[in-house]
Amino acid sequence: MNSTSTSDVIGRRVEVNGEHATVRFSGLVPPVAGLWLGVEWDNPERGKHDGSHEGTVYFKCRHPTAGSFIRPHKVNFGVDFLTAIKNRYVLEDEPKEEETEQIVIIGNKPVETIGFDSVIKQQSQLSKLQDVSLRNCAVNGAGDKGEIAKACPNIRSIDLSKNLLSSWEEVIDIADQLKHLEVLNLSENKLTSPSSSPSPTGTFPTLKVLVLNRTGVTWAEVLRCASGWPVLEKLYLESNNIIISERPTDVLQTVKLLDLSSNQLIDENQLFLIAYLPRLEQLILSDIGISSIHFPDAGIGCKTSMFPSLQYLVLNDNQIAQWSFMNELDKLQSLHALSCTRNPLTEGSKDAQTTRQFIIARIGQLRTLNKCAIEPEERRGAELDYRKAFGNEWKKAGGHQDPEKNRPNEEFLAAHPRYQALCLKYGAPEDGELKTQQPFLLKNQLLTLKIKYPNQHDQKVIEKQLPVNLQERSGMLLLGLCSSNWGRPFPLE
Amino acid sequence: MRECLSIHIGQAGVQIGGACWELYCLEHGIQPDGVVLDGGQDLLAPAKTEPTRASFDSFFCETRAGKYVPRALFMDLEPTVVDGVRAGSYRSLFHSEQLVSGKEDAANNYARGRYSVGPEILDLVLERIRKLAEHCSGLQGFLIFRSFGGGTGSGFTSLLLEQLSVEYSGKTKLDFSVYPAPRISTAVVEPYNSILTTHPTIEHVDCTFLVDNEAIYNICHGKLDLERPSYASINRLISQAASSITASLRFEGILNVDLIEFQTNLVPYPRIHFPVTSFAPILSADSTHHKEPSVSDITAACFEPSHQLVRCDPRLGKYVACCLLYRGDVVPKEVNAAIAATKLRNSIQFVDWCPTGFKVGINDRPPREVPGGDLAEVQRAVCMLSNSTAVAEAWARLGHKFDLMFAKRAFLHWYIREGMEEGEFAEAREDLAVLEKDYEEMGRSL
């Protein structure tokens, strides 16, 4: 399989010394004699130019230093699937201990057969394979038709990441032959988008898990292929620069887990487009740069109809800095586990314990926070502390122990949507609870005095702060004046 | 054939046991009530050749009703923890006779576990073990799970092990011990209990796999994004290590390592039987499929202190022997390459008199994780057991703490009043000092 005729070679994925590239050109590049291949590297800095040489444009690259010309013999076009499997899984011929001879009669003459056992052994090894990894094995395609189905039909899970597959058609050629395929990992392959006609349904009839991390796939391409994944449960799309452009209407309806980590172009409005996937239970949105969220269909204290089945939300490594975010999460109907470490909201504050408590208090149905179960005592403590912490604010905003007079303003209700519910649960906070204890600092023990000269009006009124112990003899204040301008005591009014 | 009995002693032993059996059931496709899932664990019948049940039998006993019952015994001197198992989600898995509890606990006191409260329940425990052993056609040995620091785990275990040596001489005994964490202490008298239990049991145990809570706590916090690791998380990690160690006994593999092979390859002298356990890869479940570490990645990771389940620095010591137990999608070619690369690394030094030192086991069953667990499911994993002179550091630490307290005879009266003598303390400490010397001797060049 090393034809380098122009028509076959353009678009093929190749490997050169560990670096992957796509062939964009094949032919002569004068003045140097001989055949050259023009490749566009995956790594945009690996190359020397953008496909043009001495003024002539031979091919185009997305990046000015992503292109190179290479001699064909230096380039590895890869091997087919079956060769790769045999390379990895078939045990090398071991030294034979006994040569088992079998006598077979061929045309009246007995003939010895030697070595058949090892061939049979090899084949039986392959047919037993269920969980296969061909990561970085230079797989470029399915090979001869039907061979995979004959040799290893029982494969259930296959890791084809970082190979030389160049199109969805090639993937389908392989998967068609694996009737029991449940898990497929195609990360780090650059697959050309499938032709406009949707792939026939039933291509991946048993596929439950599909991993497409770092493939550069677009949302539109995902939806186009998704009709071929009727029972898909887990879809991983990490680091693809995805922009969610449309709502999945008839596809992806069985998906329970969706991983969109490290797709920095996703914003909160795009999330609405995936908000109606009926079975979505786990959504991973780590490192997407999100800072706010708002569910417009639900008012304060109400539940949203979006993400109806979402149970576990992962928001680590984002830009969440406002408590309003947590308030919004309370609107999710089924949410009971949340991970939100390494956000400005949780990192900045010195008191991690209080931050945890406030998150627990703001999201009523949460049972697990940052992989740590919330015991009933912890929830009770958190809610009580939260209620106490904002009690004064509540009162200032119009809150009152007497339900008739209890009318906190809109601003407060928006900032603390669960406050009223907590008051119902535990009772409104008592005044005694709310008196803030001033810490025993010297500055809190100072009295500010304004000293006025009764007889010298041109002197300014001086303000001084002096430490005073008011519990000493009543009425008498002893002043110690430390200013050098004053030498003598004087009467006070 | 080749049955193994697991005995879980004390709170630590019982709770780790819960995590272990939960994982084993998942790996074998057994449901919480002991019934195998429809079709068994191999959904594709043609792929099965010889009966894989034979190995599965080493840990589970099949009853006439078609249920699978673990070959295990859970015991504690007080009822609370074992009641947790009796009422937990796996209550129908165990027969009530396998769950033994007393009424009065050992109160973190070795002397109570060994001399006063322990002996009252000893006969019952031995009888139950006898019953389990009767169901075995070829008992290979015992796996004991316990902690060093607790009263039951230290005291009762030493009592039990002496009796087991008498009744079942010739059977292997392996010990999974929770070593007291250096900086996170649950009991002040842990050093006493640990050293007191090590002295009598060292002759009766063939190999002890040490794990310490602090090392695992740091792993959970640093690598798994757990804000406050709970004992449940810690126990799950320990159960993964235990599963890797016992995988060869429960599944047929390409390269099997059974109980006796561990000893033959890891233990150079009878007393030097404390390998350090490491585990790789350790990836958070939220990052599933973000990385797929290769065989060489996970092999190299095992040699990093951050992957060890015990705090000590093997870079400061020398390796005597290493046992690498791979599971999942692992090909012998890649293992050889990974080991060759390891041998070239300068930071990994072997003692002069044992240059080769690598024992490899490969099991093709992939590592599994319980639903809702913290670890990502990966295609391959490795558990490394390495006998290194650096473990002496852990003993020295413990000895130092013991000395500080013993010099003042602090807390001693709690032990004396249960029938112990000061002499026993001194003797135990002596023994530990000799052990440290033995390790030092081993590391010296020829």
TrEMBL record, chain A:
InterPro entries assigned to the protein according to its UniProt record, in alphabetical order: CAP-Gly_dom_sf (IPR036859), CAP-Gly_domain (IPR000938), Leu-rich_rpt (IPR001611), LRR_dom_sf (IPR032675)
Record Gene3D superfamilies: CAP Gly-rich-like domain (2.30.30.190), Ribonuclease Inhibitor (3.80.10.10)
Domain CAP-Gly residue range list: 27-71
Keyword Repeat: yes
GO cellular component terms, semicolon-separated: cytoplasm
Keywords, sorted A to Z: Chaperone, Cytoplasm, Leucine-rich repeat, Repeat
Family matches, as Pfam families: CAP_GLY, LRR_1, LRR_9
SUPFAM superfamilies per record: Cap-Gly domain (SSF74924), RNI-like (SSF52047)
Locations listed in the record: Cytoplasm
Zinc-finger found in the keyword field: no
Highest taxon listed in the record's lineage: Eukaryota
Family stated for the protein in its record: Belongs to the TBCE family.
Protein name: Tubulin-specific chaperone E
Organism lineage string: Eukaryota, Metazoa, Chordata, Craniata, Vertebrata
Gene that this polypeptide is encoded by: TBCE
TrEMBL record, chain B:
Main location: cytoplasm
A Pfam family recorded for this sequence: Tubulin
GO biological process per UniProt: microtubule cytoskeleton organization; mitotic cell cycle
Gene3D superfamilies in the record: Helix hairpin bin, Tubulin/FtsZ, C-terminal domain, Tubulin/FtsZ, GTPase domain
Catalysed conversion reaction: GTP + H2O = GDP + phosphate + H(+)
Signal peptide: none
Location of the protein in the cell: Cytoplasm, Cytoskeleton
GO terms, molecular function: GTP binding; hydrolase activity; metal ion binding; structural constituent of cytoskeleton
Cellular-component GO terms for this entry: cytoplasm; microtubule
Needed co-factor(s): Mg(2+)
InterPro entries linked to this entry: Alpha_tubulin, Tub_FtsZ_C, Tubulin, Tubulin/FtsZ-like_C, Tubulin/FtsZ_2-layer-sand-dom, Tubulin/FtsZ_GTPase_sf, Tubulin_C, Tubulin_CS
CDD domains in the record: alpha_tubulin
Keywords associated with the record: Cytoplasm, Cytoskeleton, GTP-binding, Hydrolase, Magnesium, Metal-binding, Microtubule, Nucleotide-binding
Tubulin/FtsZ 2-layer sandwich domain: residues covered: 255-400
Tree of life domain: Eukaryota
Domain Tubulin/FtsZ GTPase: 56-253
Subunit structure: Dimer of alpha and beta chains. A typical microtubule is a hollow water-filled tube with an outer diameter of 25 nm and an inner diameter of 15 nM. Alpha-beta heterodimers associate head-to-tail to form protofilaments running lengthwise along the microtubule wall with the beta-tubulin subunit facing the microtubule plus end conferring a structural polarity. Microtubules usually have 13 protofilaments but different protofilament numbers can be found in some organisms and specialized cells.
Family: Belongs to the tubulin family.
PANTHER family found in the cross-reference section: TUBULIN (PTHR11588)
Function: Tubulin is the major constituent of microtubules, a cylinder consisting of laterally associated linear protofilaments composed of alpha- and beta-tubulin heterodimers. Microtubules grow by the addition of GTP-tubulin dimers to the microtubule end, where a stabilizing cap forms. Below the cap, tubulin dimers are in GDP-bound state, owing to GTPase activity of alpha-tubulin.
Stated name of the protein: Tubulin alpha chain
Species, as recorded: Bos taurus (Bovine)
Phylogenetic lineage: Eukaryota, Metazoa, Chordata, Craniata, Vertebrata
This protein's encoding gene: TUBAL3
